[in-house]
Design a protein that fits this description.
This protein has about 170 residues and is an alpha+beta fold. It folds into two domains: about 15-60; about 65-169, no CATH class. It is about 35% helix and about 15% strand. Strands 1, 2, 3, 4 and 5 form a five-stranded antiparallel β-sheet that branches. It is rod-shaped and about 115 Å long. The relative contact order is 0.17.
Length: about 170
């Protein structure tokens, strides 16, 4: 009688191959959704980071008055003559901060940047404050109008226009 021997043969049985394929299928079924979720989370984190950068940029536009209360620093752009209310002067501008909790203290008249220097605008700001015989405390802030991002030039930072001085209610 002859005995069958497996000398010289090497390889995997069909059952071993099927088991390996099943294991790979289970791993792929678990891993693929996690990786696709990871790319979504990375994209969301990037958008949130950009939104925080824009929010920070807009908050920088609120200029705190010095503690002596007479002068706001960094007044470099023109304001808008708005009859005592801080309003949008164009469709593509918005207030840099939420005004809830603030009341208007002083409006800033329009001062054309072509006609006035920064020092002249600061002097006019002081006149507006001093003529009202009220003290602007360190709680006062200068709110600005900020232009929405330009669709043609999305990387260009928006332009700000000082609008009015507000104080905490």
């Amino acid at each position: 009688m002859r005995t069958a021997t497996m000398t010289g043969h090497s390889g995997f049985t069909l059952i071993e191959l099927v088991v390996v394929l099943i294991i790979l299928g289970v791993l792929a079924g678990v891993a693929v959704p996690r990786f696709s979720d990871l790319t979504d989370r990375v994209g969301l984190a990037e958008v949130q980071t950009q939104a925080r950068a824009i929010q920070t940029y807009n908050r920088i536009n609120v200029l705190k008055c010095q503690s002596n209360g007479l002068r706001c620093t960094n007044l470099t752009e023109t304001g808008t003559d708005n009859g005592g209310a801080c309003k949008r002067n164009a469709d593509d501008f918005f207030l840099s901060e939420d005004l809830s909790g603030w009341e208007e203290k002083y409006g800033i008249e329009t001062i054309e940047s072509t006609n006035k220097t920064e020092e002249e605008r600061r002097k006019r700001m002081e006149e507006l404050i001093n003529n009202d015989n009220k003290n602007v405390t360190s709680e006062a802030a200068l709110f600005t109008l900020t232009r929405y991002a330009d669709r043609e030039n999305p990387n260009e930072f928006p332009r700000e226009l000082p609008c009015a001085i507000y104080k905490r209610k």
